[in-house]
Design brief:
With 427 residues, this protein is α/β, with parallel strands linked by helices. 31% of the residues lie in helices and 23% in strands. The chain is built from 14 helices and 23 strands. Helix 1 (21-31) runs parallel beside helix 2 (47-58), helix 4 (122-130) runs parallel beside helix 6 and helix 8 (231-243) packs parallel to helix 11. The termini are close together.
Length: 427
């Protein structure tokens, strides 16, 4: 799909953000391990989450989709699937399922689309093998398809990771849930898994040295989940509201988990006008209404722990930087090169078509703001965040931006262009 995004005036009003993708995956997967059925509301209905739901169905778990809710009914003895489990474009699905299945005495095959088949898996298969799991894949377990022969995980293993990754950490905790396991990261990544396991009754705690220690789990209590709205999806509107003149947007009931709220801190560091209205949150995740108003941004440095906390949002933050006064430096973000695409290369190339001065670094980029001109062109190449980031740029740049393969947005935000069209500027 090709779309042409053009300036169409201020963005004013309320935007209903879709459900949080990370919490949606986990609300299905973790309740599939529980002692009884659970109700999930606000689930993100996207290609990635559908991949997790369909894989669980193939394993015998009940996933009953109803208007406004999903009922998850666990199955005590999982079914050995007759076909490979298709993870589509979802790294969360294949990595978390690898750990989840390592604890079950089943033989399963996990496959994905062309993009997922190029993404590195050894960061997960290596620790799982060290736990005693039997996992194979192309390039000695670094590339899918992956085969998992589960049920052989040893108790009490410890994993001192050299990268901070919520997916890797979660896979290890899921694999070791029946026997106990410990894991530590160099920096804290998203903690949705820890929050949800604790809310379901798991004996999981973090010690003073940063180790997450999970004791053997005998029973997980079912957890009704009201999925908050996705802060990563909200990031596109936060940037759009900041850079498009006279804009003011209200984003209701968005998840503001501190472990992933770096996009708010990064934009505030750049001078954004953002108001956060915390709400009472009955679940494990904090939520708030967010209001953003247009203001002139300035350059900033986004690195270290802040870069980790807004890693998925860095493509659209780069668009914000291109509209800001001065220089923005993004560092410590080499993980962007092994996402759905090489996001550093894609962003740099796209910004250059808009006349932006940008230096590509191995782990980020240096952007000199203030010289955008269109028309621009970018090929999303199956990457939803590239498509949406440059759609935001198109609303600001004279002449707009043409985006090829824009249908990539269906993996995380299926109605993004519909919402943008409702505010004008899409063709």
């Amino acid at each position: 799909m090709r779309v042409h995004i053009e300036p169409a005036g201020a963005l004013v009003g309320e935007v209903e953000i879709p459900g949080d993708k990370s919490v949606s995956h986990r609300s299905l997967l973790f309740n599939a391990m529980a002692a009884g059925p659970a109700r999930v509301t606000g689930l993100l209905r996207s290609g990635d989450v559908a991949a997790t739901a369909n894989a669980l169905r193939a394993l015998g778990v009940g996933i009953d989709e109803r208007p406004g809710e999903v009922i998850v009914t666990p199955k005590a003895g999982l079914v050995s699937p007759s076909q490979p489990l298709d993870c589509g474009n979802s790294g969360t699905t294949i990595r978390l399922l690898s750990g989840w299945l390592a604890a079950h005495p089943l033989y399963t095959v996990l496959v994905g689309d062309d993009s997922l088949s190029k993404r590195p898996m050894r960061r997960v298969t290596g620790p799982l093998r060290a736990m005693g799991a039997q996992i194979d894949g192309r390039d000695d377990g670094n590339l899918s398809p992956l085969t998992v022969r589960g049920g052989t995980v040893r108790p009490g293993t410890r994993h001192d990771l050299n990268i901070a990754s919520a997916q890797v950490k979660s896979a290890i905790l899921l694999a070791g849930r029946n026997v106990g396991v410990s894991v530590r990261e160099p920096r804290q990544s998203r903690d949705h898994t820890e929050r949800m396991l604790i809310a379901m009754g798991a004996d999981l705690s973090r010690d003073v040295e940063g180790w997450w220690n999970l004791q053997p789990v005998t029973t997980l209590e079912p957890l009704d989940v009201a999925v908050p709205r996705d802060l990563s999806a909200a990031a596109f509107w936060l940037v759009a509201g900041s850079i498009i003149p006279d804009s003011e947007l209200r984003l209701p009931t968005v998840g503001i988990n501190p472990a992933r709220a770096g996009v708010l801190d990064a934009l505030k560091r750049m001078g954004a006008d953002i108001q956060i209205e915390p709400l009472d949150a009955p679940g494990a995740e904090p939520i708030a209404n967010i209001v953003v108003r247009c203001t002139q941004l300035h350059g900033a440095t986004i690195d270290g722990n802040l870069a980790l906390r807004c890693l998925d949002e860095l493509p659209v933050l780069a668009v914000a930087a291109a509209c800001a006064d001065g220089v923005t430096t993004i560092r410590d973000a080499s993980e962007l090169r092994v996402k759905e695409s090489d996001r550093i290369s894609r962003v740099v190339g796209g910004l250059r078509t808009l006349g932006v001065r940008v230096e590509e670094l191995p782990d980020g980029m240096v952007i000199t703001g203030g010289n955008l001109r269109g028309p621009g062109h970018v090929d999303a190449h199956g990457d939803h965040r590239i498509a949406m980031a440059f759609a935001v740029a198109g609303r600001r740049v004279p002449g707009g931006v043409v985006i090829d393969n824009a249908d990539a947005v269906t993996s995380s935000y299926p109605n993004f262009f519909d919402q943008l069209h409702g505010l004008g500027g899409t063709s």
